[in-house]
Amino acid sequence: MEITDIQTIPLAHSVPEGQGLGDARGFGTDRGTTLVRLETDDGTVGWGEAFAPGPIATATVEELFADAVVGMDPFAVESLAETAYTDPYHFGGDVFVQSAVSAIDVACWDIIGKSVGRPVHRLLGGTHCEELTPYASTMYFTEVDRPIDEPIREAVAAGFSAAKIKIGSGLEADVERVRTAREILGDDADLMVDMNGNYRPHQALRSARAIAEYDVAWIEEPVPPENESGYRELREKVDVPIAAGEAHYGRFAFKRLIDDRAVDIVQPNLGRCGGLSEARLIAGMASTENVAVRPHVWNSAVGMAAAIQFAASVSNYPHTRHVPEPMLLEFDRSENPLRSELLETPFDPSGGTIDVPQEPGLGIEIDRDALERYRAD
């Protein structure tokens, strides 16, 4: 079997003017990503996602990877990430290179799964897994004035038993947002917060101590991703677990986080971290240091499918049934038709669980009409 064709498909969606939403750093109005479609000589098709803007992702794939991928045996997928670190030399850790690698890698795993008739999570070494626990990624900062309790109430009404909210705009606002979310979610729900790297260490420390009484499960990106000393400083002073990884790319960046014990939880994004091959390696490194793995998901439906398959494969080490800690999967609650409309059967988190596809590969079918509707090339 060999790959005979590679295509990049940029996708984009914009929300109406004045309806932007985001985090403490600012608002966003555009959603965009890039799909990669691979086809083999026997007609098998695989899909992956480069979580990067279309023009940049397309140019990166065409300039650095297309010639090598056409003619490649998809079963040689795990050599792809290693090659990216050495050829092109010096560019391997770049976010756009890793995004391109991610898309091609995931598409290869999709093909492999279809070829052998197994879902990807079983190929990655996972046991049989039928469902995961989704958490609502919500309570964004919005351009339009909106009661801060409204998004959490909507998430609870939809069946979510866990949520992650945006904070990072100041101590008083942080406390108000966390207190509101906890009151609505109830005492037994998992509540996470995301500062999106908007603080210096001393600011993040003050906020972490102020919200600790509300039983926060983790604090995500309390300082900028490049501030590695800040992560180490906070982890020594804060009792709440620290999480990061959405802005880290490839095994070497994650190795530093894990080896330095800078975080308690790593969060690879399957559209940027190097794909399923790198994510599996990252999970293995994390396991050896007893660091938890929870994928970051703000992707299209293809990236979400990859994250679900990966999450279903991650070991629960060192837990036994006596220490229940479900694999929490991020589910963005903002408007995103690139996630909600792109599949023949969209992912449904209602009721507090999300199904892990058991069909071969990623277990998804692309809705061709939706694909054409949101194409940006």
Automatic annotation (TrEMBL):
Gene Ontology molecular function: any one: isomerase activity
Organism: Natrinema salaciae
Keywords (A to Z) from UniProt: Isomerase, Magnesium, Metal-binding
UniProt keyword annotation of NAD present: no
Record Pfam families: MR_MLE_C, MR_MLE_N
InterPro entries the record matches: Enolase-like_C_sf, Enolase-like_N, Enolase_C-like, Mandel_Rmase/mucon_lact_enz_CS, Mandelate_racemase_C, Mandelate_racemase_N_dom, RHMD-like
Domain of life from the UniProt record: Archaea
Domain Mandelate racemase/muconate lactonizing enzyme C-terminal, chain residue ranges per copy: 148-241
The name this protein goes by in its record: D-galactarolactone cycloisomerase
GO BP term, pick one: amino acid catabolic process
Cofactors demanded by this protein: Mg(2+)
